[in-house]
Amino acid sequence: MRIHCVGPGSIGSLVCFHLQRVTPVTFLLRTRQPQHRKNPTTLSIQLEQSDHQLGITGGITYQFLGRQQQEPIDSLLVTTKAHQVTNSIRPIRHRLSRNSTLVLLHNGLGVLEELVEELFPDPLDRPSFVLATTSHGVHKVASSPQRLLDDDHNHQGDEHEACHGRFCHSGVGDLRFGVLPNLTVSDALRRLSARHYPKTESEPLTEHNPILNPASKLSPNLDDHLPYLSPATHSLHRTVASLLNPRVCSQLNTRWLPLGELQTSALIKLAVNASVNPISALLETRNSSLRGQASFNSISRQVCQEASAVFAAQLGKPIGPHHPLSAHQLHGVVETILTATASNISSMCADMRSIWARRIPFRRKLSKLNRRDLILANKRSTSLSDQSQIGRESTERSDRTEVDYINGYICKLGKRYGIDTRLNEALCNLVKLKVDSIELGEVLPRLRRINAKM
Q1: What is the pLDDT of residue 19?
Q2: Name one GO molecular function term (predicted).
Q3: CA 226 to chain centroid
Q4: Quick one: DSSP state of residue 411?
Q5: How many whole angstroms separate alpha carbon 165 and alpha carbon 236?
Q6: How far is it between the farthest Cα atoms of the chain?
Q7: Tens of pLDDT, residues 384-431
Protein backbone atom coordinates (compact mmCIF):
# COMPACT_ATOMS: atom_id res chain seq x y z
CA MET A 1 0.00 0.00 0.00
CA ARG A 2 1.15 3.55 -0.78
CA ILE A 3 0.41 6.49 1.52
CA HIS A 4 -0.19 9.86 -0.15
CA CYS A 5 0.42 13.03 1.85
CA VAL A 6 -1.11 16.43 1.14
CA GLY A 7 0.44 19.35 3.02
CA PRO A 8 3.92 17.96 3.77
CA GLY A 9 5.11 20.87 5.91
CA SER A 10 6.96 20.45 9.18
CA ILE A 11 4.64 17.94 10.89
CA GLY A 12 3.81 16.14 7.64
CA SER A 13 7.50 15.78 6.79
CA LEU A 14 8.28 14.44 10.27
CA VAL A 15 5.60 11.75 9.99
CA CYS A 16 6.48 10.86 6.39
CA PHE A 17 10.20 10.70 7.25
CA HIS A 18 9.42 7.67 9.42
CA LEU A 19 6.51 6.22 7.39
CA GLN A 20 8.67 6.06 4.24
CA ARG A 21 10.85 3.52 6.04
CA VAL A 22 7.97 1.05 6.31
CA THR A 23 5.69 1.86 3.35
CA PRO A 24 5.99 3.89 0.11
CA VAL A 25 5.04 7.58 0.40
CA THR A 26 3.96 10.06 -2.30
CA PHE A 27 3.73 13.81 -1.72
CA LEU A 28 0.83 15.71 -3.30
CA LEU A 29 2.25 19.19 -3.90
CA ARG A 30 0.36 22.37 -4.73
CA THR A 31 3.16 24.38 -6.35
CA ARG A 32 6.51 23.78 -7.99
CA GLN A 33 9.43 24.80 -5.74
CA PRO A 34 13.07 25.58 -6.69
CA GLN A 35 14.16 22.04 -5.80
CA HIS A 36 11.77 20.70 -8.47
CA ARG A 37 13.40 22.79 -11.19
CA LYS A 38 15.34 19.87 -12.67
CA ASN A 39 12.33 17.52 -12.46
CA PRO A 40 13.88 15.08 -9.98
CA THR A 41 12.50 11.56 -9.90
CA THR A 42 12.13 11.46 -6.11
CA LEU A 43 12.49 13.64 -3.01
CA SER A 44 14.35 13.20 0.25
CA ILE A 45 13.77 14.60 3.75
CA GLN A 46 16.56 15.63 6.11
CA LEU A 47 15.66 15.43 9.80
CA GLU A 48 17.84 16.86 12.54
CA GLN A 49 17.17 15.40 15.98
CA SER A 50 17.45 17.35 19.23
CA ASP A 51 20.91 15.79 19.73
CA HIS A 52 21.93 17.28 16.32
CA GLN A 53 22.17 13.88 14.64
CA LEU A 54 21.07 14.15 11.02
CA GLY A 55 19.02 11.48 9.28
CA ILE A 56 18.01 11.29 5.62
CA THR A 57 15.07 9.42 4.14
CA GLY A 58 14.80 9.30 0.35
CA GLY A 59 12.77 7.67 -2.39
CA ILE A 60 9.64 9.76 -1.82
CA THR A 61 7.73 10.22 -5.07
CA TYR A 62 5.60 13.29 -5.75
CA GLN A 63 2.73 14.57 -7.85
CA PHE A 64 1.23 18.02 -8.43
CA LEU A 65 -2.41 18.56 -7.52
CA GLY A 66 -3.24 20.24 -10.82
CA ARG A 67 -2.19 17.30 -13.03
CA GLN A 68 -5.47 15.40 -12.51
CA GLN A 69 -4.11 11.92 -11.96
CA GLN A 70 -6.79 9.24 -11.93
CA GLU A 71 -5.35 6.31 -9.98
CA PRO A 72 -7.17 5.58 -6.70
CA ILE A 73 -5.66 6.66 -3.38
CA ASP A 74 -5.69 3.94 -0.73
CA SER A 75 -4.48 6.03 2.20
CA LEU A 76 -4.26 9.83 2.43
CA LEU A 77 -2.39 11.66 5.20
CA VAL A 78 -3.62 15.27 5.51
CA THR A 79 -1.32 17.61 7.45
CA THR A 80 -2.36 21.03 6.12
CA LYS A 81 -3.70 23.83 8.31
CA ALA A 82 -7.28 23.17 9.44
CA HIS A 83 -8.74 25.86 7.17
CA GLN A 84 -6.96 24.38 4.14
CA VAL A 85 -8.05 20.74 4.53
CA THR A 86 -11.28 20.80 2.50
CA ASN A 87 -9.86 22.74 -0.45
CA SER A 88 -6.70 20.60 -0.43
CA ILE A 89 -8.74 17.40 -0.77
CA ARG A 90 -11.23 18.79 -3.29
CA PRO A 91 -8.94 18.36 -6.37
CA ILE A 92 -8.37 14.67 -5.51
CA ARG A 93 -11.89 13.82 -4.33
CA HIS A 94 -12.42 11.64 -7.43
CA ARG A 95 -9.50 9.41 -6.33
CA LEU A 96 -11.06 8.64 -2.93
CA SER A 97 -13.76 6.05 -2.25
CA ARG A 98 -15.22 3.89 0.49
CA ASN A 99 -12.10 1.71 0.17
CA SER A 100 -9.87 4.67 1.12
CA THR A 101 -8.64 5.92 4.49
CA LEU A 102 -8.08 9.57 5.42
CA VAL A 103 -5.68 10.41 8.27
CA LEU A 104 -6.47 13.91 9.57
CA LEU A 105 -3.63 15.49 11.56
CA HIS A 106 -4.17 19.20 12.32
CA ASN A 107 -5.01 21.68 15.06
CA GLY A 108 -8.56 22.51 16.04
CA LEU A 109 -11.86 20.71 15.57
CA GLY A 110 -14.73 20.86 13.11
CA VAL A 111 -12.86 19.77 9.98
CA LEU A 112 -14.41 16.29 9.90
CA GLU A 113 -17.93 17.72 9.93
CA GLU A 114 -16.96 20.11 7.13
CA LEU A 115 -15.54 17.29 4.99
CA VAL A 116 -18.60 15.11 5.47
CA GLU A 117 -20.94 17.95 4.56
CA GLU A 118 -19.05 19.28 1.53
CA LEU A 119 -17.13 16.35 0.02
CA PHE A 120 -18.55 13.10 1.42
CA PRO A 121 -22.31 13.56 1.95
CA ASP A 122 -23.12 10.00 0.81
CA PRO A 123 -22.41 7.55 3.70
CA LEU A 124 -22.11 4.67 1.22
CA ASP A 125 -19.23 6.39 -0.62
CA ARG A 126 -17.48 7.83 2.43
CA PRO A 127 -13.92 6.75 3.33
CA SER A 128 -12.85 5.67 6.79
CA PHE A 129 -11.11 8.26 8.96
CA VAL A 130 -8.17 8.15 11.32
CA LEU A 131 -8.36 11.20 13.60
CA ALA A 132 -4.95 12.14 14.97
CA THR A 133 -3.36 14.71 17.24
CA THR A 134 0.29 15.26 18.09
CA SER A 135 2.44 17.09 20.63
CA HIS A 136 5.70 16.76 18.68
CA GLY A 137 7.61 19.97 18.03
CA VAL A 138 9.26 20.34 14.62
CA HIS A 139 10.30 23.28 12.49
CA LYS A 140 11.95 23.87 9.15
CA VAL A 141 15.58 24.97 9.27
CA ALA A 142 16.47 25.05 5.56
CA SER A 143 14.01 27.31 3.83
CA SER A 144 16.23 29.13 1.33
CA PRO A 145 16.26 27.77 -2.24
CA GLN A 146 20.08 27.98 -2.40
CA ARG A 147 20.42 25.93 0.80
CA LEU A 148 18.18 23.23 -0.64
CA LEU A 149 20.17 23.17 -3.87
CA ASP A 150 23.41 22.94 -1.87
CA ASP A 151 21.95 20.04 0.13
CA ASP A 152 21.12 18.27 -3.13
CA HIS A 153 24.69 18.78 -4.36
CA ASN A 154 26.22 17.48 -1.13
CA HIS A 155 23.83 14.54 -0.79
CA GLN A 156 25.56 11.34 -1.86
CA GLY A 157 22.36 9.51 -2.78
CA ASP A 158 20.51 9.28 -6.08
CA GLU A 159 21.59 12.08 -8.43
CA HIS A 160 17.96 12.33 -9.62
CA GLU A 161 16.70 13.00 -6.08
CA ALA A 162 16.02 16.49 -4.69
CA CYS A 163 15.82 17.61 -1.07
CA HIS A 164 12.26 18.45 0.00
CA GLY A 165 13.53 20.26 3.09
CA ARG A 166 15.57 20.08 6.26
CA PHE A 167 13.63 19.94 9.52
CA CYS A 168 14.53 19.95 13.21
CA HIS A 169 12.64 17.61 15.54
CA SER A 170 13.02 19.99 18.48
CA GLY A 171 10.42 18.60 20.87
CA VAL A 172 9.65 14.91 21.33
CA GLY A 173 6.00 14.27 22.14
CA ASP A 174 3.52 11.64 21.02
CA LEU A 175 1.03 10.98 18.23
CA ARG A 176 -2.39 9.78 19.35
CA PHE A 177 -5.07 8.56 16.98
CA GLY A 178 -8.50 7.00 16.93
CA VAL A 179 -10.36 5.14 14.19
CA LEU A 180 -13.72 6.14 12.72
CA PRO A 181 -14.71 3.35 10.28
CA ASN A 182 -17.16 3.90 7.45
CA LEU A 183 -20.32 1.81 6.97
CA THR A 184 -18.57 -0.84 4.87
CA VAL A 185 -15.83 -1.46 7.44
CA SER A 186 -18.31 -1.33 10.33
CA ASP A 187 -20.48 -4.00 8.70
CA ALA A 188 -17.44 -6.23 8.17
CA LEU A 189 -16.40 -5.84 11.82
CA ARG A 190 -19.92 -6.60 13.05
CA ARG A 191 -19.94 -9.81 11.02
CA LEU A 192 -16.60 -10.71 12.61
CA SER A 193 -18.01 -10.11 16.10
CA ALA A 194 -21.06 -12.22 15.27
CA ARG A 195 -18.80 -15.17 14.41
CA HIS A 196 -16.71 -14.91 17.57
CA TYR A 197 -19.21 -13.80 20.22
CA PRO A 198 -22.77 -15.07 20.74
CA LYS A 199 -25.32 -12.27 20.71
CA THR A 200 -27.15 -11.61 23.98
CA GLU A 201 -29.79 -9.02 24.82
CA SER A 202 -27.72 -7.66 27.72
CA GLU A 203 -24.49 -7.35 25.74
CA PRO A 204 -24.71 -6.20 22.10
CA LEU A 205 -22.05 -7.21 19.60
CA THR A 206 -20.52 -3.73 19.54
CA GLU A 207 -19.44 -4.12 23.19
CA HIS A 208 -16.67 -6.50 22.11
CA ASN A 209 -15.03 -4.09 19.67
CA PRO A 210 -13.91 -0.60 20.81
CA ILE A 211 -13.87 0.56 17.17
CA LEU A 212 -17.64 0.05 17.01
CA ASN A 213 -18.26 1.40 20.51
CA PRO A 214 -16.77 4.88 21.14
CA ALA A 215 -17.62 4.63 24.84
CA SER A 216 -15.58 1.44 25.26
CA LYS A 217 -12.63 1.44 27.66
CA LEU A 218 -10.96 -1.49 25.88
CA SER A 219 -7.59 -0.81 24.26
CA PRO A 220 -7.97 -1.54 20.52
CA ASN A 221 -5.51 -3.76 18.67
CA LEU A 222 -5.19 -4.96 15.09
CA ASP A 223 -5.47 -8.71 15.59
CA ASP A 224 -8.67 -8.66 17.64
CA HIS A 225 -10.46 -5.52 16.48
CA LEU A 226 -9.27 -4.62 12.96
CA PRO A 227 -8.00 -7.78 11.24
CA TYR A 228 -7.12 -8.07 7.58
CA LEU A 229 -10.56 -9.36 6.59
CA SER A 230 -11.59 -8.34 3.10
CA PRO A 231 -10.95 -5.59 0.55
CA ALA A 232 -13.25 -3.42 2.65
CA THR A 233 -10.81 -3.36 5.58
CA HIS A 234 -7.46 -3.53 3.74
CA SER A 235 -6.80 0.22 3.57
CA LEU A 236 -7.74 0.98 7.17
CA HIS A 237 -5.87 -2.08 8.48
CA ARG A 238 -2.68 -1.24 6.58
CA THR A 239 -2.81 2.44 7.54
CA VAL A 240 -3.12 1.64 11.24
CA ALA A 241 -0.48 -1.10 10.92
CA SER A 242 1.94 1.44 9.41
CA LEU A 243 1.37 3.90 12.25
CA LEU A 244 1.90 1.14 14.82
CA ASN A 245 4.95 -0.35 13.09
CA PRO A 246 7.76 -0.56 15.69
CA ARG A 247 10.08 1.54 13.50
CA VAL A 248 7.49 4.32 13.42
CA CYS A 249 6.12 3.88 16.93
CA SER A 250 9.57 4.07 18.54
CA GLN A 251 10.21 7.48 16.96
CA LEU A 252 6.75 9.10 17.04
CA ASN A 253 5.37 7.39 20.18
CA THR A 254 2.15 6.52 18.35
CA ARG A 255 -0.79 5.42 20.50
CA TRP A 256 -4.09 3.98 19.29
CA LEU A 257 -6.85 5.16 21.63
CA PRO A 258 -10.56 4.35 21.83
CA LEU A 259 -12.40 7.12 20.02
CA GLY A 260 -14.01 8.43 23.21
CA GLU A 261 -10.64 8.78 24.93
CA LEU A 262 -9.16 10.47 21.87
CA GLN A 263 -12.05 12.95 21.77
CA THR A 264 -11.41 13.90 25.40
CA SER A 265 -7.72 14.38 24.61
CA ALA A 266 -8.61 16.52 21.57
CA LEU A 267 -10.98 18.72 23.62
CA ILE A 268 -8.28 19.31 26.24
CA LYS A 269 -5.84 20.33 23.51
CA LEU A 270 -8.52 22.58 21.99
CA ALA A 271 -8.98 24.45 25.28
CA VAL A 272 -5.21 24.87 25.68
CA ASN A 273 -4.85 26.20 22.13
CA ALA A 274 -7.85 28.50 22.60
CA SER A 275 -6.15 30.01 25.65
CA VAL A 276 -2.58 30.34 24.36
CA ASN A 277 -2.64 30.67 20.57
CA PRO A 278 -4.76 33.81 20.00
CA ILE A 279 -3.07 35.78 22.79
CA SER A 280 0.43 34.86 21.61
CA ALA A 281 -0.60 35.70 18.03
CA LEU A 282 -2.04 39.09 18.97
CA LEU A 283 1.06 39.96 21.02
CA GLU A 284 3.43 38.16 18.61
CA THR A 285 5.36 36.67 21.48
CA ARG A 286 6.76 33.37 22.72
CA ASN A 287 4.81 31.31 25.22
CA SER A 288 7.27 32.27 27.98
CA SER A 289 5.96 35.85 28.09
CA LEU A 290 2.49 34.59 29.09
CA ARG A 291 3.63 32.34 31.91
CA GLY A 292 2.94 33.75 35.37
CA GLN A 293 1.17 36.86 34.06
CA ALA A 294 -1.93 37.69 36.12
CA SER A 295 -3.67 39.28 33.14
CA PHE A 296 -3.13 36.17 30.99
CA ASN A 297 -4.26 33.88 33.82
CA SER A 298 -7.50 35.84 34.10
CA ILE A 299 -8.17 35.50 30.36
CA SER A 300 -7.17 31.82 30.34
CA ARG A 301 -9.48 30.95 33.24
CA GLN A 302 -12.47 32.52 31.49
CA VAL A 303 -11.63 30.80 28.18
CA CYS A 304 -11.47 27.47 30.02
CA GLN A 305 -14.76 28.18 31.81
CA GLU A 306 -16.53 28.83 28.51
CA ALA A 307 -14.91 25.77 26.92
CA SER A 308 -15.85 23.51 29.85
CA ALA A 309 -19.46 24.74 29.73
CA VAL A 310 -19.88 23.88 26.04
CA PHE A 311 -18.13 20.52 26.51
CA ALA A 312 -20.58 19.66 29.29
CA ALA A 313 -23.51 20.63 27.07
CA GLN A 314 -22.11 18.48 24.27
CA LEU A 315 -21.70 15.51 26.62
CA GLY A 316 -25.22 16.04 27.95
CA LYS A 317 -24.20 15.79 31.60
CA PRO A 318 -22.59 18.02 34.25
CA ILE A 319 -18.82 17.96 34.63
CA GLY A 320 -17.43 17.59 38.16
CA PRO A 321 -14.40 19.51 39.47
CA HIS A 322 -12.10 16.51 39.02
CA HIS A 323 -13.24 15.69 35.49
CA PRO A 324 -10.45 16.28 32.92
CA LEU A 325 -12.75 18.70 31.06
CA SER A 326 -13.60 20.84 34.10
CA ALA A 327 -12.50 24.48 33.97
CA HIS A 328 -10.08 23.99 36.86
CA GLN A 329 -8.42 20.96 35.27
CA LEU A 330 -8.23 22.62 31.85
CA HIS A 331 -6.55 25.71 33.28
CA GLY A 332 -4.06 23.47 35.10
CA VAL A 333 -3.13 21.88 31.77
CA VAL A 334 -2.67 25.34 30.24
CA GLU A 335 -0.16 26.25 32.95
CA THR A 336 1.66 22.93 32.53
CA ILE A 337 1.89 23.32 28.76
CA LEU A 338 3.13 26.91 29.06
CA THR A 339 5.96 25.74 31.31
CA ALA A 340 6.87 22.85 29.01
CA THR A 341 6.78 24.99 25.85
CA ALA A 342 8.11 28.28 27.23
CA SER A 343 10.59 28.80 24.39
CA ASN A 344 8.10 27.85 21.67
CA ILE A 345 6.19 30.06 19.25
CA SER A 346 2.58 28.92 18.89
CA SER A 347 1.35 27.88 15.46
CA MET A 348 -1.05 30.84 15.32
CA CYS A 349 1.73 33.27 16.20
CA ALA A 350 3.85 31.71 13.44
CA ASP A 351 0.93 32.17 11.03
CA MET A 352 0.66 35.84 12.02
CA ARG A 353 4.38 36.36 11.40
CA SER A 354 4.01 34.72 7.98
CA ILE A 355 1.15 37.08 7.14
CA TRP A 356 3.40 39.99 8.07
CA ALA A 357 6.08 38.66 5.70
CA ARG A 358 3.60 38.36 2.79
CA ARG A 359 1.76 41.62 3.39
CA ILE A 360 1.31 44.35 0.78
CA PRO A 361 3.67 47.22 1.74
CA PHE A 362 1.97 50.36 3.02
CA ARG A 363 1.48 52.78 0.14
CA ARG A 364 0.63 56.34 1.07
CA LYS A 365 -0.63 57.26 -2.39
CA LEU A 366 -3.20 54.46 -2.51
CA SER A 367 -6.64 54.87 -1.00
CA LYS A 368 -7.99 52.18 1.30
CA LEU A 369 -10.30 50.96 -1.50
CA ASN A 370 -7.43 50.75 -4.00
CA ARG A 371 -5.23 48.90 -1.50
CA ARG A 372 -8.03 46.40 -0.94
CA ASP A 373 -8.43 45.89 -4.71
CA LEU A 374 -4.66 45.41 -5.04
CA ILE A 375 -4.65 42.73 -2.36
CA LEU A 376 -7.59 40.85 -3.87
CA ALA A 377 -5.94 40.97 -7.30
CA ASN A 378 -2.70 39.74 -5.78
CA LYS A 379 -4.46 36.75 -4.20
CA ARG A 380 -6.17 35.85 -7.47
CA SER A 381 -2.84 35.79 -9.30
CA THR A 382 -1.03 33.52 -6.83
CA SER A 383 -2.26 30.29 -8.39
CA LEU A 384 -0.19 28.50 -11.02
CA SER A 385 -1.10 29.60 -14.51
CA ASP A 386 -1.72 26.02 -15.62
CA GLN A 387 -3.90 25.08 -12.64
CA SER A 388 -6.59 27.81 -12.86
CA GLN A 389 -9.51 27.02 -10.56
CA ILE A 390 -7.77 24.24 -8.62
CA GLY A 391 -4.89 26.54 -7.79
CA ARG A 392 -7.20 29.31 -6.63
CA GLU A 393 -9.16 27.02 -4.36
CA SER A 394 -5.95 25.82 -2.76
CA THR A 395 -4.38 29.23 -2.24
CA GLU A 396 -7.05 31.81 -1.57
CA ARG A 397 -7.29 30.96 2.15
CA SER A 398 -3.69 29.85 2.68
CA ASP A 399 -2.74 33.04 4.53
CA ARG A 400 -5.36 32.74 7.28
CA THR A 401 -5.04 31.40 10.82
CA GLU A 402 -6.79 28.39 12.36
CA VAL A 403 -8.76 30.51 14.84
CA ASP A 404 -12.13 29.47 13.33
CA TYR A 405 -11.35 25.85 14.21
CA ILE A 406 -10.10 26.62 17.73
CA ASN A 407 -11.89 29.52 19.47
CA GLY A 408 -14.40 29.57 16.62
CA TYR A 409 -15.30 25.93 17.25
CA ILE A 410 -16.03 26.71 20.91
CA CYS A 411 -18.27 29.58 19.77
CA LYS A 412 -20.02 27.27 17.31
CA LEU A 413 -20.82 24.79 20.09
CA GLY A 414 -21.92 27.68 22.30
CA LYS A 415 -24.49 28.82 19.74
CA ARG A 416 -25.70 25.25 19.26
CA TYR A 417 -26.31 24.70 22.99
CA GLY A 418 -27.14 28.26 24.06
CA ILE A 419 -23.92 28.81 26.05
CA ASP A 420 -22.35 32.26 26.37
CA THR A 421 -18.86 32.26 24.78
CA ARG A 422 -18.30 36.00 24.48
CA LEU A 423 -14.55 35.92 25.31
CA ASN A 424 -13.78 33.23 22.74
CA GLU A 425 -15.82 35.19 20.20
CA ALA A 426 -13.90 38.37 21.03
CA LEU A 427 -10.52 36.62 20.66
CA CYS A 428 -11.66 35.15 17.36
CA ASN A 429 -12.68 38.57 16.04
CA LEU A 430 -9.51 40.26 17.28
CA VAL A 431 -7.28 37.76 15.47
CA LYS A 432 -9.26 38.21 12.24
CA LEU A 433 -9.18 42.00 12.62
CA LYS A 434 -5.41 41.97 13.02
CA VAL A 435 -4.96 39.72 9.98
CA ASP A 436 -7.14 42.02 7.86
CA SER A 437 -5.31 45.11 9.11
CA ILE A 438 -1.93 43.61 8.26
CA GLU A 439 -3.09 42.55 4.80
CA LEU A 440 -4.54 45.98 4.06
CA GLY A 441 -1.34 47.71 5.15
CA GLU A 442 -3.17 49.60 7.89
CA VAL A 443 -0.99 48.51 10.82
CA LEU A 444 1.40 51.28 11.82
CA PRO A 445 5.05 50.45 11.10
CA ARG A 446 7.26 49.73 14.09
CA LEU A 447 9.23 52.78 15.21
CA ARG A 448 12.98 52.53 14.93
CA ARG A 449 15.08 53.23 17.99
CA ILE A 450 16.89 56.47 17.13
CA ASN A 451 18.96 57.10 20.25
CA ALA A 452 19.83 54.39 22.74
CA LYS A 453 20.29 57.00 25.48
CA MET A 454 16.82 58.47 25.11
Answers
A1: 97
A2: 2-dehydropantoate 2-reductase activity
A3: 25
A4: H
A5: 29
A6: 84
A7: 333 333 333 333 444 589 999 999 999 999 999 999 999 999 999 999
Q: What is each CA distance from 88 to 4, 119, 237, 447, in whole angstroms?
A: 13, 11, 24, 39
Residue 77 three-state SS: strand
Encode burial over 20-29: b for 16+ CB neighbours within 10 A, e otherwise.
beebebbbbb
| Residue 78 amino acid letter | V
Task: Return the DSSP state at 14.
Answer: H
Instruction: Mention every residue, 6+ apart, whose C-beta is less than 8 A from residue 223.
Output: none
Pairwise CA distance, residues 326 & 308, whole Å: 5
Distance CA 392, CA 370 (A): 22
Distance CA 351, CA 435 (A): 10
Nearest to 443 by CA among 451, 435, 453: 435
User: What is the three-class DSSP state of 380?
Assistant: helix
Residue ranges with strand state E in 245-355: 254-256
- How is residue 341 annotated by DSSP? T
- Coil, strand or helix at 60: strand
Q: Do residues 83 and 110 touch, judged by C-beta distance below 8 A?
A: no
Query: At 58, is the secondary structure helix, strand, or coil?
Result: strand
Q: Cα separation of 25 and 58, whole Å?
A: 10
- β-pair partners for 254: 175
- For residue 212, what are the β-bridge partners? none
Q: What is the pLDDT of residues 226-250, one digit of tens each?
A: 988 778 889 999 999 999 999 999 9
Query: Please, which residues bridge with residue 42 across strands?
Result: 161
| DSSP structural state of residue 386 | T
pLDDT tens, position by position, 338-397? 988 888 889 999 899 888 887 755 555 556 566 666 666 555 544 433 333 333 333 344
Taking a C-beta distance cutoff of 8 angstroms, is the pair 34, 23 a contact? no
Tally of helices (H runs) and strands (E runs) in the chain = 16, 11
Instruction: Give exposure, 167-200, as e/b (b: 16+ Cβ within 10 Å).
Output: bbbbeebebbbbbbbbebbbebbeebbeeeeeee
CA 362/CA 93 separation, integer angstroms: 40
* Strand 137-140 with 128-134, pairing: unpaired
